[in-house]
Amino acid sequence: MALHSPKLSPQDCGDCPIRHRAVCSRCEADELARLEGMKYYRSFQAGQTVVWSGDRMDFVASVVTGIATLSQTMEDGRRQMVGLLLPSDFVGRPGRTVAPYDVTATTDLVMCCFRRKPFEDMMATTPHVAQRLLEMTLDELDAAREWLLLLGRKTAREKIASLLTMIARRDAGLKKRSAGGAISFDLPLTREAMADYLGLTLETVSRQISALKRDGLIELRDKRRIVVPDFDLLSDETGDDTDGGLVA
Amino acid sequence: MALHSPKLSPQDCGDCPIRHRAVCSRCEADELARLEGMKYYRSFQAGQTVVWSGDRMDFVASVVTGIATLSQTMEDGRRQMVGLLLPSDFVGRPGRTVAPYDVTATTDLVMCCFRRKPFEDMMATTPHVAQRLLEMTLDELDAAREWLLLLGRKTAREKIASLLTMIARRDAGLKKRSAGGAISFDLPLTREAMADYLGLTLETVSRQISALKRDGLIELRDKRRIVVPDFDLLSDETGDDTDGGLVA
DNA sequence: TTGCCGCCTTGATCAAGATCAAATGAAAGG
DNA sequence: CCTTTCATTTGATCTTGATCAAGGCGGCAA
């Protein structure tokens, strides 16, 4: 795999787009230098598999650009996505050498990989990487628990609305708004990937997106580009507490 | 709440039943002494709520004995359990003061609570608590992801079989076996709590348990006591890889 | 004893979403 | 321009689990 990984010119951590959010975000200059010595970049094309469940994995990594998914597959082919990896997210577990999930690039993807052994040594001897990793893991656990509620109790329509608002929210940070407060973004996932994430079939995903469009809650450009005229109206369809609940 | 918490006589960490598994398991004598200074015990009766979602929480805690659940509730009453806390499991997040979930005692429960501020200070200044907490959080994340597959893709029968094998497995460590390799254990959950865990209704839970009984995969004593004559046969119903998959 | 209450089981019916099956539309290649 | 391919949409029908509705079965207090 990764047959087409071009060797990237080594990038300086100082210029890294995820410098301030990734597992290395708390590192001092000397720690950063140490990380530079154990890192290498790999890139993948959209659709490529990064690692298969059960494979040996001799590295841990951060997503630099692009989007990857973690998923689990049952013998009969049923598949459930268990994580969506965005830039700065971390893959792999210190102390574990076998991948428990399939990792797949859903867009073109660049990862910053650290050789396992030196990384683990660093975790054991300096605190900043481990501290940041704990924080990130706790965030991921919260996200997974939010997803448990979605998978266990939400209707198909609520699931779609929740996914769209989640993607809109993360895009909102640094993205474009059309006139009038409307939000627009590209879906980085196929209907099938959305189905795998939401515990639905792709037909149901398609139907519910059509229904939201019919109801005027979203507009579609080009199948993948979504326009949300009124974000609050879409939020109301998620089933979540909307009452400005300040539950940090 | 906790009106009936008897003040327990302060217990020595050296005698603690979860000494070797909890968040304190890696601590040296001096660290343990420091923890002793910030800890206190609280106990709850079966059914009591430990904290409500949205409540301020000035402590973090370990479950010492008994079982608690983490759950989320939607405005219209739909409820999803997002965690099952067994002895040695940890509740609360360093740096967060507001509980994001309801925590409920499902059996009589004793918790070892640490005052937040001193605990956080200790995390920042000594490595062993943070290291162990990272490990435990990663384990919880794996468990949550396994549950995502269950909620998103498994049938009702597979869900029940998965829950029973999960409980059986954890009990197996230190428990009784009837003659002939049969395993037996008590369900620590009502049908309703099982439903909330599995994303089902209590009627479906009841029907599927009856079906497993009819099919000879389990026997019931007293509604709550389960006997599993052949563990492998029950495992086959979970939908998981059974092929002795050595995926640690 | 009796009646109540929690918890559980069972039955009848309903509906959300899955499944099976085509059709559409856009991009890619010859 | 034509064909192929792949993602998506839409329709018809089926199935699983939800919902609505009784009862059953201890345990416990009066």
Summarize the topology.
2 copies of one chain form a homodimer.
Chain A: H1 29-36, E1 39-44, E2 49-51, E3 59-65, E4 68-73, E5 79-85, E6 90-91, E7 102-105, E8 109-115, H2 116-125, H3 127-153, H4 156-172, E9 183-186, H5 191-198, H6 202-214, E10 219-221, E11 225-228, H7 231-235
Antiparallel strand pairs in A: 1-8, 2-7, 3-6, 3-8, 4-5, 4-7, 9-11, 10-11
Chain A binds a DNA duplex (30 and 30 nucleotides) through α6.
Can you describe what's shown?
The structure is a homodimer of 248-residue chains. The first copy, chain A, is an alpha+beta fold. In chain A, 35% of the residues lie in helices and 21% in strands. Chain A has helices at residues 29-36, 116-125, 127-153, 156-172, 191-198, 202-214, 231-235, and strands at 39-44, 49-51, 59-65, 68-73, 79-85, 90-91, 102-105, 109-115, 183-186, 219-221, 225-228. Chain A has a four-stranded antiparallel beta sheet with strand order 1-8-3-6. The first copy, chain A, has a four-stranded antiparallel beta sheet with strand order 2-7-4-5, with helices on one face. In chain A, strands 9-11-10 form a three-stranded antiparallel beta sheet, with helices on one face. In chain A, a hairpin with a 3-residue loop joins strand 10 (219-221) and strand 11. In chain A, helix 4 packs across helix 6. The longest helix of chain A has 27 residues, at 127-153. Mean pLDDT of chain A is 91; it is low at 1-7 and 244-248. The A-B interface holds A 53-54, 70, 72, 74-76, 78-80, 82-83, 93, 95-96, 98, 100-101, 127, 130-131, 133-135, 137-138, 140-142, 144-145, 147-149, 151-153, 198-199, 239-241, 245, 247-248 and B 53-54, 70, 72, 74-75, 78-80, 82-83, 93, 95-96, 98, 100-101, 127, 130-131, 133-135, 137-138, 140-142, 144-145, 147-149, 151-153, 198-199, 239-241, 245, 247-248. The first copy, chain A, binds a DNA duplex (30 and 30 nucleotides) through residues 155-156, 190-192, 200-204, 206-207, 209-210, 222-223.
